[in-house]
Amino acid sequence: MENKEIEHKAWMGRVILVFLGQLILETGSIYMIFLFLFTGIYIYFQEKKVPSYLIAYFVSACGGAALMFLNSSYRAAVSGNGDTYKKINISGSFGELIRSWWEKYAMDIFPNWIENIPLINLVLIACIFLLCFWSRSRIAKIIQFLGILFASWIIFNIQNPRWNSLIPHGEYLNAAVGVAWIIYIFTAVIIQNTTLSGKRTLIFIVGSQLFVTGPLIIADPLNERCFFQNYLLWVLLICSMMREIQMKISERELPENVKTRLELVPNFLMIGTLCVMMASQFMSWRVEAIRKMEIKKCREEKSESLVLPNNPSGNVYCFGDNTSNSNREWVNKYKMYYDIPDEVELTFIEYNAYIDMKKEEKK
Predict the structure, then answer these.
(1) Is the bond into 111 cis (omega within 30 degrees of 0)?
(2) Which of 84, 235, 254, 310 could pair with 76 in a Cys bridge, judged by C-beta atoms 3.0 to 4.6 Å apart?
(3) Strand pairing partners for 347?
């Protein structure tokens, strides 16, 4: 009886967490509704019934999403009326929509979904190389060769972050390579994954990536926080690939000491990635705390100008949350979001330059 009571409380707690989780991120709200819906359909065809807890999760997810999207700012974003920083782009002819959506992908989605996570991209390539390591097939060799080309492209982008702005339509060229990169990753990991359960997991991750990214094509504005789910899905993909690599190592006829050391390689790779992620996340929290402090100080002193730091780890981790001064529209929306007076001149600078500026002020 006591166990049933504990189980009931845990079940109700998860229902409440689903409801509250729906209030965090728009694309996550839509994703969770369809996730519970398709999971219920899949289980029904497997077992001819749907568990009551899954129905409760689905109802809770729908309730949380309804509460979020009934917010006046979302209604104003869809209708195009009202003073809100959000906007939904679904008006215009078919050709105009395709053109605007491609521009949206090239300028906003690609940089945050793919370009700003070079660490994850390089770890994905390393995992693919390990998956192909013992294969002598021609497809495996082609996958490895393409991996070298994409790794070169990623490293070039790290060393030359502004090259695409120096040539005509450079952003679109880089974004087109990004499409090829996504196709390469998904194709390579599915081909090289040998187990049926592994393929199902990867297909689920692929579908989830596309599902949570798709709605962003009509949303404005976007920044790094909109892609946090994508980041988690990339990490989930890496974990799934690590598991497959360890299974392949365990199947090889190798001395036990060699096999043990090889099985540790994916673990160290994952631990190293998580350490960099956590260090970058702590840096992001620090920068956000500094920004809030500066904004509060600006309001209290009624300053005419405000200088905020960018995140130095913005090119490593998806939560860089950096803002370009050249994009005045986004700067103005940032001011609206954080309730910074319109007359204040807002400028973003590099983190190190901000620290040096503060040191000079103290002298």
Answers:
(1) no
(2) 84
(3) 307
